[in-house]
Amino acid sequence: xxxxxxxxxxxxxxxxxxxxxxxxxxxxxxxxxxxxxxxxxxxxxxxxxxxxxxxxxxxxxxxxxxxxxxxxxxxxxxxxxxxxxxxxxxxxxxxxxxxxxxxxxxxxxxxxxxxxxxxxxxxxxxxxxxxxxxxxxxxxxxxxxxxxxxxxxxxxxxxxxxxxxxxxxxxxxxxxxxxxxxxxxxxxxxxxxxxxxxxxxxxxxxxxxxxxxxxxxxxxxxxxxxxxxxxxxxxxxxxxxxxxxxxxx
Length: 249
Fold this sequence. Notes:
mainly beta, Metal Binding Protein, Guanine Nucleotide Exchange Factor, Chain A, 2 domains
């Protein structure tokens, strides 16, 4: 891999084979994808224009980026199927490494593959690591002063750039206070999460708890466990109240 930093933008080539599909047709198939950190939290794929298999039709849109310059918008067309505004090119970018690349809108594609495995939400960051460790430390969770979980059988999930997450057995959680939520979120490292609200008296706290019924293989150790947002509840670890962390959540 080669890495280039241009101001706030970090650019790195990857050795993975990457494919994106629209209506069952391969829009791109490349072994030279480029990871571009447009935001510090996760990268975006930029793909070599010559590896794009679909037709790109200019749609007249121009998007300006202070770092990347002016991007020309394109519709992606393949075998009669069109994804409007799904591609962007910075042909005259002040960052030379971007000029021959195409940025495909992630959600405009039906499927993305890294090698032969599907990936969701965004590309996996090569600098993000997840460790899930069994722990006998005493974890207590309180919401509005009410104890909603009490466990000495936690799995602690350590993820780069995020606070530790304490995943607890359902049997150690006050299930009588949990209310199903319609919310679902996806993570490229863990899979699709479902949520519970927490009912304390007449107040229902939205989406405080999440769990993965069928996590991705690398996160199987949190199957059947649930975690609370450290940022929104009081967590006691071995009797000591933990400071609520600051994060994007």
